[in-house]
Every structure is written in C-alpha cells, then in structure tokens.
Amino acid sequence: MADFRDTLILPFEKGILPFPKEGENWLILNADTLPLTEPALCDLVQCEQGFRSSYLALKAAGYEVAARQPTGAALDGCLVLASRTRAVNEGNLVRAWNDLKPGGVLVFAGDKTSGVQPLRKWLSQRVGTLESLSKHHAVAFWAVRESNEEDIEYEAPETRQGDFYVSPGMFSARGPDVGSLLLAEQFDKRLFGRVADFGAGWGFLSSMMLDRCDQIEKLELYEADWESLQAAEANVGERGTYHWCDLTTEAPRGPFNWIVMNPPFHSGRAATPDLGRSFIEAAARALPSGGRLLMVANTNLPYENTLNGLFKKVERKAQAKGFKVIEATKGSR
Ligand SMILES: C[S@@+](CC[C@H](N)C(=O)[O-])C[C@H]1O[C@@H](n2cnc3c(N)ncnc32)[C@H](O)[C@@H]1O
User: Mean pLDDT, to the nearest integer, of 203-224?
Assistant: First the structure.
C-alpha cells in the first residue's frame, strides 16, 4: 500500500487531535498496520479489514481485527485508510461519520492516486468544518462531529449486474471480465468431481461451471476478499463451499480433480506476475497426478516457465482479445 499511514497518524503525533484513550471506542476502516506511536494505537483501536492477507498481518501485529465490524457502534473516533475505489471510499466515509457519537472524530488519509482531494471536497459539502494537512505525498483530513450535525444521506451504488450481485471495488464490478468469458468457453463435461475456483471473486466462473458442467460433484471457492466472497455466496448459493483464504500463504484442502482460475496479477496498482505464479504453485500442490489446471491470463504474462516446471503437459487451448487459456495436467512426482 502507498504509505499514507504515516500521514494518517500525523494529526495525533502533532498534538492536533488527542490520541484514543483506554475505554473509548475507535475503529479503523480498510485497516492496515500503523507506524509505532506512544501510546501504541494497536492496543486502542478495533480494525476492519476484509482482505485476508492484510487481515492476517494485522492479527500477527497484535491488532483486534474482523473482516466486517458491526455498524451503529457510537464511535469516539474512526480512522479511514483510502482504498483504490471512489465508491468504497465514499461508503466508508459515510459509515464512519454516521457512526460517530457527538464530539467523535473522523480522520481520512490517502494519496493522489486514491483521489484524496476530490474526496475531501465531497465530504466538505456534507459535514461542517474539515481540517487537513499533507505530508509524504499524501493528505489527511478530519472533522469532528458536533452534536447538532446530522447523518450523511447517501445512496449506495447499484449492486447488481444482470443476474449477479456485485459491489464497487470487486474485480470486474461492471460485469464479467473478457478473460473470464474466454475461460468459461472451455467449460464442459470434462470438468468433473471435486473442483476448485481459485480467486473466485464474486463467483462468475463458478456460476458458469455449475451451468455448463454437470459432472461436478463439489465446487469450492477460494477468495481473499471477504466482500467478494459474500457476493459469490449470494450468486452461487448452496452448491458451493466458501473459503476466505490467502492462496499465497494458506494451503487449500485438496486434492481436486480440476482447478479453474483467472489469477490476480496486480497488487495495488503494480502488475506482479509473482502473484499469478504463486497461484500456479498453490494449484500444483493441490492437484494429484492426472489433476488439471485450467487458467486464463493476459498473453504477455510469462507463466509458461512456471507451468512447465510443475506440470507434465501444458497446452494452450484458446487465445483471443489479449488473453490465453492454458490447460495443464499434473504428472506423478
Ligand atoms: C482476476 S480476479 C478473478 C475473479 C473471478 N474469478 C473472475 O473470473 O471474475 C482475481 C481474484 O483473486 C483474488 N485474490 C487476490 N489475491 C488473492 C490471494 N492472495 N488469495 C486468494 N484470492 C486472491 C482477488 O480478490 C480477485 O477476486
């Protein structure tokens, strides 16, 4: 994550805002581990973090964290770290403000790429006085909720795409991805038995598999993003089983007959083929001899070396619109 965490704690370090006190109710939305302060914030705040790897990092650092914290908590303070999606940031600002008790403080931090200035303007049109400071190429702004200030009225964005439940911030929130559509063209009766969807998102590939592959007995969805997994559950229903899992560090419980995936290749804004490679490695570990991996990737992503090192047979099944579909069969070790 871009380091606006230092900027978030600046108003506290400078003594402009008082540090949280023991017995108060503070929450961090889109939480991440924070720089060390005196007193230590990790002992004084609750965290919400739905992305599994960040959630695990918070836990390991000693924070109290949940994928989703209850709303309506009468907060003394709420700290919000910017996400990459405008609608998610707006939703978090509204939720934070509406949950503050009188005198409670909302602090937001983000950088240029998270659109912090337009968000500051957006909030200033809805609440009283906003203050801000900038440092480390980032901005923190904050507002204290006076007792006469109202909740912000906010119409949350549409959460349906045709037949599917989807929210802003999820992968392909505006409808199925071109690569995933190309991959789904390969779904047929060959997919059988126990099948896993790695990085299942809101469940597009799983839904397509259940429509097109009647030999599937058990379908297991693995996804790091909690909200996406909830959407997948709503979209795919009881025929799937759902695992909130960081596939780069947590081993799925195979063995599977088939694994299907459109692996992530971005961490934040940076393209990182390493993420896709660790998905391929996780798939190779969870497939027995004869098990198959069916995946799609941008044609320019160099996954073949990794696949050839781990699988007996690697075949390109389709290529179109900048994507390639690859099927790889596991040999005996
Ligand atoms: C390219 S999207 C594909 C989503 C969905 N399968 C589809 O085709 O529409 C990759 C998915 O992997 C998830 N993801 C990213 N890192 C992950 C990780 N370490 N473990 C599990 N899932 C992860 C992302 O949240 C995202 O939903």
Answer: 97
Do 119 and 199 have their domain in common?
Answer: no
Q: Is the peptide bond before 39 cis (omega within 30 degrees of 0)?
A: yes
Bridge partners of residue 26, in order along the sequence? 77
Q: Residue of the nearest CA to atom 2 in ligand 1?
A: 264
Question: Which residues is 160 bridged to in the sheet?
Answer: 165
Phi/psi of residue 15, nearest 5 degrees: 80, 10
Please report, as a single letter, which amino acid is at residue 123: L
Q: Is residue 201 within 6 Å of ligand 1 at its C-beta?
A: yes
Gap between the Cα atoms of 314 and 293, Å rounded = 9
Q: Residue 1 above 60 pLDDT?
A: no
Give the model confidence (pLDDT) of 71-110 as tens digits: 988 999 999 999 999 999 999 999 999 999 999 999 999 9
Compute, in angstroms, the gap from residue 135 CA to the centroid of ligand 1: 33
Assess whether 199 and 272 both reside in one domain: yes
